[in-house]
Amino acid sequence: MSWKMAVMFLAGALFAPSWADDADDTKAKILNRLENTKISLDFKDTNLDEVIDFLHEVTNINFVLSKDVREKCKNGELKVDVKLSDMPLKSALKLMLEMHDLTVVFRSGVLLVETKEERGGEVEMKMYDVKDLMMKIEDFPAPVIELESTDDAPIGISIGPDDGGHPFTSVDSLVNIIRNATGGDSTWGKDGVSVDIQNGLLIVVHNPEVQKEVQQLILSLRQFK
C-alpha cells in the first residue's frame, strides 16, 4: 500500500465515525425541539408550504417538502386552517399533516414532509425461507381434489391420491403465483423492485405494504401445500 493510500484510509477511518456522530447529534437536537418547543398558530386558508416556512423561522428546524407535496402546494391542494395555543410543536405538526394524509421523517439532517404514498414507496429487501414450499413431498401424498360431472348434479368432487408432486416444483411457478397474487405488472413493473428465489430463499425487494402481502401469501400457501 502506498503512503497516499495509507493516508486516505486513515483519514476515512478517523472522520467517518464523526459524520455518524454528527447525524445522531442533529437528530437528537431536532427531536428535543419537537418535544419541548411550545408553539401558537393562527392560520386560515393558508398554503402548507407557508406554514412550514413559518415553523422554520421560529424553531430554526430545517424542513424539506417532497416533490409530490410541493406540487400539491403549488396547485393549492394543501390548505391549513388551525388556531392553536401553547401546544407542543410535535403535536401541532402532526395535527396539520394528518389533515392531508401527510407524514414527516428525519432524513439527512432535515425533516422531510411527504405523502403517505411516498413513504410507503420506500423499498426494502427481505428474505423468506420457502424451502418447504419447493420441496417435493413423496412419503405422505396429499389428496387431489378435482371437479367432475355426475348423473345427479352437473358438478361433483372426486378425491384421489396425489402423485407425490408439489404445485411449486419450479422457481418460476412460485414466483409467478406471488407476482400475480400481489398485483402483477402494476406492482412489479416498477424500477428498483424484484422478486426471485435463490437456494430456497424468496428474495423480495419492495415497499413495506407489498412485503406484508407477500408474507401473508406465504402463510396461506403453507396451509394448502
Would you mind describing this structure in some detail?
47% of the residues lie in helices and 28% in strands. The protein has helices at 3-36, 48-59, 67-74, 89-98, 116-120, 131-134, 171-181, 185-188, 208-224, and strands at residues 38-47, 63-65, 79-88, 102-107, 110-115, 124-129, 143-148, 156-161, 194-198, 201-206. The strands form 4 sheets. A 3-stranded mixed β-sheet has the order 2-5-4. A 3-stranded antiparallel β-sheet has the order 6-10-9, covered by helices on one side. A two-stranded antiparallel sheet has the order 1-3. Residues 1-20 and 136-166 have low confidence and may be disordered.
What would a concise description of this structure say?
This protein is an alpha+beta fold and 225 residues long. The protein has helices at 3-36, 48-59, 67-74, 89-98, 116-120, 131-134, 171-181, 185-188, 208-224, and strands at 38-47, 63-65, 79-88, 102-107, 110-115, 124-129, 143-148, 156-161, 194-198, 201-206.
The CATH architecture of the largest domain can be given as 3-Layer(bab) Sandwich
Just give the CATH class of the largest domain.
Alpha Beta
Q: How does the major sheet shape up?
A: 3 strands, mixed
What is the H-and-E element order? HEHEHEHEEHEHEEHHEEH
